[in-house]
Structures are given as structure tokens and as C-alpha cells.
């Protein structure tokens, strides 16, 4: 069946329908990872977006037990070629069946290189995936321009508190759309991880007397999370060590007077170099975000930049002055890799008192 990807600038790509046949409007973003498509599909940070995979062949090892959440989150999936016959000893099904199961529409057979160049040159834009060959461009374009992702954190966060048992430090993990490997990375270091819904009051978390607090990744514009930001101000005022990743990093910065802005086309992939400003060492990182912290409005008495993106100079981490708090924009829990920066979890353990 034919399918069409219509961008808000009027560009139309024609391909083949994959997954669900429903029509969807979403923000179109691209990911440059060469592997790990299942982790991309199940990353809650993609809620409210349709993902273009720049690697040309997707699905060749099928669906494996490598999901980062209980279900996939993108609104749509866009690929050059979808493997119909996966081959892997861990394979449990095909992407085609996976997309149908979770009612996610997609399109294959389009020039994803040309599409990615448009998104890089003109910036991230909204689009529609449809199988309706009689679409009316004049009716569709205003709808595309009007679309916003909204407050998608409420959509992806857990509904109730969960505990991963451990014999070490007690860590409170705020779930703004957390990838499973954040909790796993802490748990394998012995931590008992308690996962809290995004809107849990700071008082409830502090009453549980955690040794450390972890702020997770998540989707959307951080400025939409006004209530969460107010709670993070209270967590900042405590003396509990805090480590934050991606959206958590942005929210902690906003809670302390910084600003954030949307990037032209975001950072999404497994090959982004970040520089540690203290040591000068460069790490290759996994990233998935469309917004960054604007450090110009951050009081240097509150926090200073700790990491910077080597490609475009944007902020990749903050070190808070006089506080046991550090935050990063990239993903040290990246799975599949690169795992260059997984040592940051050990740094967090040290902040809580070192190995037990």
C-alpha cells in the first residue's frame, strides 16, 4: 500500500506503508544511530515525535529483548528499507508486526538521506504520515503548523512507585520518561532503586530518606513541566546528592534560573562527541534531545558548565557550586553503546559515600 509523508513546508515523499495504516501528525526528527533501533523505538523521549532512521536498513535482527520501556513511544516510524525477514538467535518477531501491535504507522522506501538534509537545512518540522492518496495539501498544511507535542511527560511516566531491590545505597529515581537502563545501571552497582512518578511531591521523596536522587531523561519542552520544576527547587535545597540526565538536567537548570532553547534539529544518535571541561578528555556519547540549556542566564555562583558538545558548542552538563549535584545532557546509560561515560554512575556512587 502506498503511503505519503507530508512536511509542513509542502514537501511530499511517497513510499510504502508499514505498521498501522492510521493517519498521524507529529514532529519529524532523525536519529543517526547505526544499530539499536529497538532501543530508539522504546525510548520514552520520542513521545510526540515520528522518527526517521538515517541508517538505510532497519530491522535486520528483528525484535529482541532489548526494550528500554514496556512499549514503543514514537507516533510514527520512517525508514529507507525495512527488513522483512530478520535473522538473529534472539529474534522474537519483526518490526512490521511490532508496529502493528502498538498501532504505530510508518513509511518505508523513501529517500531518508534527502529527508534528513531538509530537516538539517530548514530545521525540525511537523509532518503527516497518511495512506490517503486523495489528500488535500491546502487542508493539511495548517494542521501541521498547528501541531505541538504538549506536555508529554505525563503520558510516559510510571503511574505508581516501583522498587528494584538492592543491598547498597537507596536511590530515588524520578521517572520523567526513564529508560530502563538508568535503573539497571544503578542496580548493578548494588543500589536499591525506587522509581517515582514524575509529579511525586519533593516532600514524599525526601521522607523516604534516599541516599541519592536520580532525575531521568524524558520527552518534550522542559518549560512545559512547570509543576515539576517547583518540586526540583525543593530537592535542590536539600543536601541529598543529585545526578540528572537529559530532561532531568534541563529541569534542574530551569529550577535554578537558567533558560533553555530549542535546537534547529536536535541531537539524536550514538556518535556525539562531548568534552569534559575539567580534564579536557572527549567522550563519544549517545544523545536524544531537541532542547538545550542556555547557560548565559545561569548564575556562575550556582552552577558552571562541566561538559560541552564538540560539534556545536552547546552545553552538555553542569556542576553545581557548593552542592552535591551534577547533571549531563547526554546518556551515560547508553545501550547499545557507546558506554564511554558510564563512569558517571560510579561518580554518583562516590557522591553518596563510595563503595559499600
TrEMBL record:
<comment type="pathway">
    <text>Pyrimidine metabolism; UMP biosynthesis via de novo pathway; (S)-dihydroorotate from bicarbonate: step 1/3.</text>
</comment>
<feature type="domain" description="Carbamoyl-phosphate synthase small subunit N-terminal">
    <location>
        <begin position="1"/>
        <end position="130"/>
    </location>
</feature>
<feature type="active site">
    <location>
        <position position="333"/>
    </location>
</feature>
<feature type="binding site">
    <location>
        <position position="45"/>
    </location>
    <ligand>
        <name>L-glutamine</name>
    </ligand>
</feature>
<comment type="subunit">
    <text>Composed of two chains; the small (or glutamine) chain promotes the hydrolysis of glutamine to ammonia, which is used by the large (or ammonia) chain to synthesize carbamoyl phosphate. Tetramer of heterodimers (alpha,beta)4.</text>
</comment>
<comment type="function">
    <text>Small subunit of the glutamine-dependent carbamoyl phosphate synthetase (CPSase). CPSase catalyzes the formation of carbamoyl phosphate from the ammonia moiety of glutamine, carbonate, and phosphate donated by ATP, constituting the first step of 2 biosynthetic pathways, one leading to arginine and/or urea and the other to pyrimidine nucleotides. The small subunit (glutamine amidotransferase) binds and cleaves glutamine to supply the large subunit with the substrate ammonia.</text>
</comment>
<dbReference type="InterPro" id="IPR017926">
    <property type="entry name" value="GATASE"/>
</dbReference>
<keyword id="KW-0028">Amino-acid biosynthesis</keyword>
<feature type="region of interest" description="CPSase">
    <location>
        <begin position="1"/>
        <end position="169"/>
    </location>
</feature>
<dbReference type="GO" id="GO:0005524">
    <property type="term" value="F:ATP binding"/>
</dbReference>
<feature type="active site" description="Nucleophile">
    <location>
        <position position="246"/>
    </location>
</feature>
<feature type="binding site">
    <location>
        <position position="218"/>
    </location>
    <ligand>
        <name>L-glutamine</name>
    </ligand>
</feature>
<protein>
    <recommendedName>
        <fullName>Carbamoyl phosphate synthase small chain</fullName>
        <ecNumber>6.3.5.5</ecNumber>
    </recommendedName>
</protein>
<dbReference type="InterPro" id="IPR035686">
    <property type="entry name" value="CPSase_GATase1"/>
</dbReference>
<keyword id="KW-0055">Arginine biosynthesis</keyword>
<keyword id="KW-0315">Glutamine amidotransferase</keyword>
<dbReference type="InterPro" id="IPR029062">
    <property type="entry name" value="Class_I_gatase-like"/>
</dbReference>
<dbReference type="Pfam" id="PF00988">
    <property type="entry name" value="CPSase_sm_chain"/>
</dbReference>
<keyword id="KW-0547">Nucleotide-binding</keyword>
<feature type="binding site">
    <location>
        <position position="291"/>
    </location>
    <ligand>
        <name>L-glutamine</name>
    </ligand>
</feature>
<keyword id="KW-0067">ATP-binding</keyword>
<dbReference type="GO" id="GO:0004088">
    <property type="term" value="F:carbamoyl-phosphate synthase (glutamine-hydrolyzing) activity"/>
</dbReference>
<comment type="similarity">
    <text>Belongs to the CarA family.</text>
</comment>
<feature type="binding site">
    <location>
        <position position="247"/>
    </location>
    <ligand>
        <name>L-glutamine</name>
    </ligand>
</feature>
<comment type="pathway">
    <text>Amino-acid biosynthesis; L-arginine biosynthesis; carbamoyl phosphate from bicarbonate: step 1/1.</text>
</comment>
<feature type="binding site">
    <location>
        <position position="288"/>
    </location>
    <ligand>
        <name>L-glutamine</name>
    </ligand>
</feature>
<dbReference type="InterPro" id="IPR036480">
    <property type="entry name" value="CarbP_synth_ssu_N_sf"/>
</dbReference>
<feature type="binding site">
    <location>
        <position position="250"/>
    </location>
    <ligand>
        <name>L-glutamine</name>
    </ligand>
</feature>
<dbReference type="InterPro" id="IPR006274">
    <property type="entry name" value="CarbamoylP_synth_ssu"/>
</dbReference>
<dbReference type="GO" id="GO:0044205">
    <property type="term" value="P:'de novo' UMP biosynthetic process"/>
</dbReference>
<keyword id="KW-0436">Ligase</keyword>
<dbReference type="GO" id="GO:0006526">
    <property type="term" value="P:L-arginine biosynthetic process"/>
</dbReference>
<feature type="active site">
    <location>
        <position position="331"/>
    </location>
</feature>
<keyword id="KW-0665">Pyrimidine biosynthesis</keyword>
<feature type="binding site">
    <location>
        <position position="290"/>
    </location>
    <ligand>
        <name>L-glutamine</name>
    </ligand>
</feature>
<dbReference type="Pfam" id="PF00117">
    <property type="entry name" value="GATase"/>
</dbReference>
<feature type="binding site">
    <location>
        <position position="220"/>
    </location>
    <ligand>
        <name>L-glutamine</name>
    </ligand>
</feature>
<dbReference type="GO" id="GO:0006207">
    <property type="term" value="P:'de novo' pyrimidine nucleobase biosynthetic process"/>
</dbReference>
<dbReference type="GO" id="GO:0006541">
    <property type="term" value="P:glutamine metabolic process"/>
</dbReference>
<dbReference type="InterPro" id="IPR002474">
    <property type="entry name" value="CarbamoylP_synth_ssu_N"/>
</dbReference>
<dbReference type="InterPro" id="IPR050472">
    <property type="entry name" value="Anth_synth/Amidotransfase"/>
</dbReference>
Amino acid at each position: 500500500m502506498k503511503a505519503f509523508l507530508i512536511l509542513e513546508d509542502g514537501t511530499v515523499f511517497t513510499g510504502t506503508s508499514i505498521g498501522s495504516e492510521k493517519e498521524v501528525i507529529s514532529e519529524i526528527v532523525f536519529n543517526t544511530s547505526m544499530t539499536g533501533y529497538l532501543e530508539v523505538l522504546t525510548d520514552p523521549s520520542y513521545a510526540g515525535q515520528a522518527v526517521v532512521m538515517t541508517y538505510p536498513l532497519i530491522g535486520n535482527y528483528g525484535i529482541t529483548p532489548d526494550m528500554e520501556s514496556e512499549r514503543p513511544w514514537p507516533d510514527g516510524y520512517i525508514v529507507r528499507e525495512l527488513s522483512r525477514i530478520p535473522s538473529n538467535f534472539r529474534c522474537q518477531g519483526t518490526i512490521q508486526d511490532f508496529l502493528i501491535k502498538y498501532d504505530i504507522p510508518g513509511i518505508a522506501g523513501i529517500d531518508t538521506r534527502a529527508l534528513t538534509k531538509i530537516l538539517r537545512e530548514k530545521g525540525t518540522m511537523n509532518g503527516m504520515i497518511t495512506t490517503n492518496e486523495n489528500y488535500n495539501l491546502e487542508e493539511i498544511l495548517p494542521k501541521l503548523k498547528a501541531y505541538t507535542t504538549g506536555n508529554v511527560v505525563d503520558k510516559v511516566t510510571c503511574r505508581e512507585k516501583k522498587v528494584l531491590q538492592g543491598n547498597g545505597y537507596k536511590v530515588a529515581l524520578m521517572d520523567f520518561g526513564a529508560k530502563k537502563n538508568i535503573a539497571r545501571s544503578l542496580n548493578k552497582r548494588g543500589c536499591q532503586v525506587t522509581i517515582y512518578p514524575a509529579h511525586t511531591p519533593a516532600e514524599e521523596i525526601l521522607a523516604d530518606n534516599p541516599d541519592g536522587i536520580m532525575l531521568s531523561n524524558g520527552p518534550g519542552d522542559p518549560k512545559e513541566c512547570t509543576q515539576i520544576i517547583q518540586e526540583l527547587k525543593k530537592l535542590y535545597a536539600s543536601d541529598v546528592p543529585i545526578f540528572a540526565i537529559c530532561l532531568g538536567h534541563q529541569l534542574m537548570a530551569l529550577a535554578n534560573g537558567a533558560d533553555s532553547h530549542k535546537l534547529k534539529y536536535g541531537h539524536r544518535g550514538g556518535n556525539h562527541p562531548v568534552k569534559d571541561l575539567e580534564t579536557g578528555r572527549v567522550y563519544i556519547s549517545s544523545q536524544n534531545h531537541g532542547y538545550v540549556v542556555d547557560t548565559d542566564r545561569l548564575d556562575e555562583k550556582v552552577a558552571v558548565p562541566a561538559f560541552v558538545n564538540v560539534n556545536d558548542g552547546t552545553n552538555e552538563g553542569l556542576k553545581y557550586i557548593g552542592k552535591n549535584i551534577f547533571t549531563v545532557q547526554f546518556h551515560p546509560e547508553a545501550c547499545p553503546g557507546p558506554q564511554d561515560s558510564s563512569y558517571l554512575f560510579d561518580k554518583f556512587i562516590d557522591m553518596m559515600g563510595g563503595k559499600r
